[in-house]
TrEMBL record:
GO biological process terms on file: negative regulation of DNA-templated transcription
Stated name of the protein: Penicillinase repressor
Gene3D superfamilies referenced in this protein's UniProt entry, alphabetically: Winged helix-like DNA-binding domain superfamily/Winged helix DNA-binding domain
Single GO MF descriptor: DNA binding
Alphabetized UniProt keyword annotations: DNA-binding, Transcription, Transcription regulation
Source species of the chain: Secundilactobacillus kimchicus JCM 15530
Length: 152
């Protein structure tokens, strides 16, 4: 299973396990229910689905199962963001990133890392990113360059 195949509900369960570490189902249920009004059976169904699809594994601890993540959180986030950006027009990715940064709370360290990265990228950045949209009349019909210039 890849992270891009996880539903939003499955992400919620995985976030509990990534944050708190290996847990039994009762601990997972309690943690999820602190944030969501989901029933125990809903959470157990999500756990079974995640095990079946390989995102979680289990080990026996007496009479209960302990759930272990089989997908690292960092890898899951990177896979998901990469998959999303793979579907966007190359000319529009920058605007999406600008909006994402504007809407996201960032630490001083995050901001410094972004500034350093952007300064390095600015040295080799093209004046304009080429459109990579698809279609038989792409060159005539694409409005990406017009949209990009109105967003500046």
């Amino acid at each position: 299973m890849t992270a891009t195949e996880m539903t939003p509900a499955e992400w919620e369960v995985m976030r509990v396990i990534w944050t708190m570490g290996d847990l039994g189902s009762n601990d997972i249920i309690k943690a999820v229910q602190e944030k969501r009004a989901w029933t125990e059976s809903t959470i157990k169904t999500l756990l079974r689905r995640l095990v079946k699809r390989g995102a979680l594994s289990t080990s026996a601890a007496g009479r209960k199962f302990i759930y272990h993540p089989e997908i690292a959180e960092k890898i899951a986030m990177e896979e998901t963001s990469t998959a999303l950006f793979d579907h966007l027009c190359a000319m529009k990715k920058g605007g999406v990133l600008v909006n994402l940064v504007a809407e996201t709370e960032l630490s001083q360290t995050d901001i410094q890392q972004l500034q350093d990265l952007l300064a390095a990228k600015a040295k080799t950045a093209p004046e304009q990113v080429a459109c990579d949209c698809l279609g038989p009349n792409h060159e005539q019909d694409c409005t990406c360059s017009q949209e990009a210039s109105t967003n500046d």
